[in-house]
Amino acid sequence: MAKRRVNHQAMPAAGFVEPWSLLGGAAAALHLSSDDAAPHLRIVHLDVTETPLPAMGWELSPAAPISVGELRQGSWIEIPLPEEKLRAARHLGCNVECLLTRNPTPRVLLQLGTLCVRLLPDGIVLQDGRSEARSDQTPWSGRWMRITLIVGLDGTRVEINQGERYIALALPPDSDWRASRLCLGGDETEVTTNARFARPTLALDGQLQAEWHFPSGPPVATLAPLDGDWPALIIHNQPSFAMASSRWDGTIHDPRLEPAQYDALHCHDDDMAPLDWPVTHHLRAPEQAMPGIYAVEVATAYGTERIPFFVRTAKPQAALVFLVPTLTYLAYADENLPQALFPWLCEDRGNRFVQDNGLLSLYDRHSDGSGVSLTFSRRVKATLRDDHLYPLSGSPHLLPVDLQLLRFCRTMGLAFDLVTDHDLHAQGAAALSPYRGVFTGSHPEYWTTPMQNGLRTFINGGGSLAYLGGNGLMWVSAIQDGLMEIRRGQGLGARTWDGQPGESTLSLTGEIGGLWRERGRSEFSVTGTGMTMMGFGPARPYRRRVAAETQSYDWVFDGVNEPCFGETGSVLGGAAGYEVDRTDAALGTHPDTVVLALASDFDASYATDPNEFFPTPADRDRARVAEMAIRRTPHGGLVFAAGSVAWCGALRSADGVTAVGQITANVLKRIASSES
């Protein structure tokens, strides 16, 4: 496991607030890393219109000295070896199943004190500090093998059995093998091995002492043996669980049915566990704190950074509630965006910080090419900033766009409370039930089952939804104890990553991952629209539809005189861009849904959703639109869908409130009232 001090060249301060969603009156902790030991800290309110940002007179007290934090990257497995159990033994034996992935440099397979079985680019070496044995044969990557180590008074022998490839190495009986632990895949001193491991066993003098089967369910940090009194093994730095082992035969795709086929761990040399940085400051939100998005502002000698967090209210104060897309924020946080794959259109210090420190998001691949499926809230989120510019679009993305929406609401006198995705997951419909309407930000993409259930129950009970973004409610997600997990399907291409066959099940919950539309709960069936295109070309304006079915929704356009609107905006220059949605009855759009406006004539950079099949080129061309849609629910509510990630960036211009802003205000005022 490689240790490194945080590289602060791109960002002079970084850290996280835990919990990052808190009620007024509640306490939280700041975990800060900085190369300035004495920065000036203050709490600021981000979703307000004042400039400079107003300081909050909140309690913020130091708890520990500020220093440069440490990152530990690379997962591995440790088996404790109690001295009293080895004292009388003549031999120790270990057996483990292993599948190597990509390892371009020397890596440790097994380590016992000074004794080491090391994988080389051109072979295998067994060494004990005094002597070594080598083989110029290298185990095949991508194929399971069995590694057997026997060490004792008669010498040391390691066998690697991979069917047609068999490697055996031996050393004379002078190894110091009575060590305190046996490590699989490396340890905390060096780069760990990219590999899958399964079913390690220990034997003394030929008698089996302990056997471990890794769970096909939620990740664990320690694991007791199947029986006996041997200590639990220790799993370091969050590898992936519920991975197909050598027993997977392709007939079972659900670990709950045959756990033995999914009892492997996938260890990566760039895995990271939740950070255990010390608490540097305590903070407390006042009891009557206004719901909203706040930040700890850290002003150093080298620059200023703001670390966001969210404040909710225990008692509802408004008819509207903003749903903070914290799962989407986590999924994108620390996106690496290697420039060999993704040419940058602008610089962003957060993405530079990510590359300087080897961080990864759920959009990235591990160094061995496998997809990153786990992330966590106790981490630096260098790209989650109020001034973040997305290098692929040259525009603000996620939090800064959502802040434009909330600042717009403040300007227009639209009162709102705030809940996060994590709150909706924990409380379900109860998180929304005190309100008449819920509105989203620009890109609420990742949803858990309790979140889906909660929103659907709210709408079915008469609540209204203003979905003010695009590509929302798309990916099945799971969260547990600060962890977030996704599993992607196949055929997604280079933009993200493909999952491996048979590995679409979430280890945290046992659910099938992938797209919600593949689970029969498409975004179309909730919002009326769903993802149709993605691109980074110029955003397009909307044109209002004038038809008989739109007339009962003329109130949406009160104060809007022009038929074409959304020609300007902070995201790609307009209201319809980046990722856009359309209606589609075949994918779940309700028959009562009415398209009020659409955008078309997108340039060739906009590609239709690769998950969709279009029978003819004409069908594909008809799908190359963004649609703004609305419907009344049978229970007295409204569901409005803006149809674009760029929508919230087009609410205001230098001249004031735009037509997009007026439409948004009309919708929010209507759903906040009893007239829906």
Automatic annotation (TrEMBL):
| Positions of the N,N-dimethylformamidase beta subunit-like C-terminal domain | 258-652
Q: Which Pfam families match?
A: DMFA2_C
Instruction: State the superkingdom.
Output: Bacteria
**What protein name does the entry list?**
N,N-dimethylformamidase beta subunit-like C-terminal domain-containing protein
Organism, as annotated: Acidisoma silvae
